[in-house]
Amino acid sequence: MSNKSELQERIKELTCLYEVSSFIVNADSERLEPTFQAIAFSLKKAFQFPEKTNIAIESQIATAKTGGSGFGGSFIVSNIPIFNEPKGKIVATIDHLDLKTEYFLKEEQLLLDNIALKIGNLLERIEIKNSELSMKRQMERADRLAILGELTAGIAHELNTPLANILGFAELLQSKLESDPQSLNDLNKIITNAIFSREVVKKLMFFACEMPQEMKPVNIVSIIKESVKLLEPAFRKNEVKYIVKIEDASLMLRADTVQMTQIIFNLLMNAIYFTPKNGLVTIEATQSDKNIILKISDEGKGLSEEDLQKVFQPFYTTKPVGEGSGLGLSVVHGIVLSHKGSITVKNNIKKGAIFEVRLPK
After folding, report:
1. How far apart are CA 170 and CA 165, in angstroms?
2. How far apart are CA 92 and CA 44, in angstroms?
3. Which terminus, N or C, of the chain has the lesser number of Cβ atoms within 10 Å?
4. Collapsed DSSP state (helix, strand, coil) of residue 357
5. Distances (CA, A) of 144 to 16, 92, 138, 150
6. Do residues 273 and 352 make contact, with C-beta atoms less than 8 angstroms apart?
7. Is 75 helix (H, G, I), strand (E, B) or coil?
8. Which residues pair with 151 in a beta bridge?
9. Do residues 16 and 42 make contact, with C-beta atoms less than 8 angstroms apart?
10. Euclidean distance between CA atoms 274 and 265, whole angstroms
11. Is 277 in contact with 238 (CB distance < 8 Å)?
12. Which tens digit of pLDDT belongs to each residue from 18-67?
């Protein structure tokens, strides 16, 4: 290659680097395909035989190519590094083998490597930005739940005393109204509704972690088996099957037995409700060095993005009006946090949702 030709090739490479830098600076992180496509065509022009060269850019977020299948008779590759790990690649391909000279110049490999680094830096910045946004959303959600917890605790305490009075005086009146069946029937309705309201208050206090805890060593395997046994009528009534997968006979942790039962009951009742007839609810319990891990999965329709964000908020429910108070999962969330554990929910790959509870031993 003559000096003039070499100079022309270097100019093309420098022009490409300038263009690619501009594309990356102005890249829209939500729509990377146009940016990658522009980079691919800029690279194609920079090669010694642009009319015979095709470029393919592949990453987990976006892809682009100028034509061809990606690999031809001769090609060079450069990995796209993201946090020092190859998470994509750029491939330059010569589709025809009738060239009388070297297919690729060593400078073209260096150019490819340089562009791969620039793309890697762009993807790293996007990943960091997404992680920061995710963390910010989690912190905002935790703040909202903390405020709701404080409000809920106050409401529960304010309601507890008048409800106890209503219930107490109503029960006193029962003996005085034995001769008046209609009034006694109305009074029984008052008592029934007062008891229901008291249970709602109790759930509010569970959510706000205001219920006293009796922390002691418990075997969660026994609690799971007892809970499943008590809920067998509910499984039969809804025609839902279940399977229990427990790797050890004993999974010990320090916890409140009543509250552990509350966690399992609420998660199982939720799974039963959303699983269709002849569907399967799976209960799994395992352990790691530091945690007991409980997973309950159903075969329902799964959760929307909004549901995934709000499912643990009090009074939020995906059930029809009158079929759920929206407190069950928020109660579970409050209990898990009070035990210094964590609870997450995600959609199953096949169908339904998976709730995972991690509790320290």
Report:
1. 8
2. 8
3. N
4. strand
5. 49, 51, 10, 10
6. no
7. strand
8. none
9. yes
10. 14
11. yes
12. 999 999 999 988 889 999 999 999 999 999 889 888 999 999 889 999 98
Assess contact for 226 and 258: CB atoms under 8 A: no
Both tokens of 173, joined, read 């009146």
**Which DSSP string corresponds to 54-81?**
EEEEEESS-EEESSS-S--SEEEEEEEE
Give the whole-angstrom CA distance, residue 251 versus residue 247.
9
Residues 6 or more apart from 335 whose CB is under 8 A from it? 206, 209, 256, 259, 262, 263
Would you state the structure tokens that stand for residue 164, as one six-digit string?
């106890």
CATH fold of 3-133 reads: Beta-Lactamase (3.30.450)
pLDDT of res. 313: 78
Alpha helices in the chain, H assignment, sequence order: 3-25, 33-46, 106-174, 181-207, 220-230, 232-237, 257-274, 305-310, 328-338
**Dihedral sign from CA coordinates of 303, 307, 311, 316:** negative
* Highest CATH level, class, for 215-360: alpha beta
The two tokens of residue 202 are 């109790």
Find tokens 């959760």 and name the residue.
303
Say how far apart CA 70 and CA 49 lie, in whole Å: 16
| Residue 211 scores a pLDDT above 60 | no
Closest by alpha carbon to 25, among 39, 42, 44?
A: 39
Q: CB count, 10 Å around CB of 258? A: 14
Token pair, residue 111, equals: 């150019």
Across the range 259-283, mean pLDDT stands at 91
Total Cβ atoms within 10 A of residue 49? 14
- Which residues make Cβ contacts (< 8 Å) with residue 229, sequence separation at least 6? none
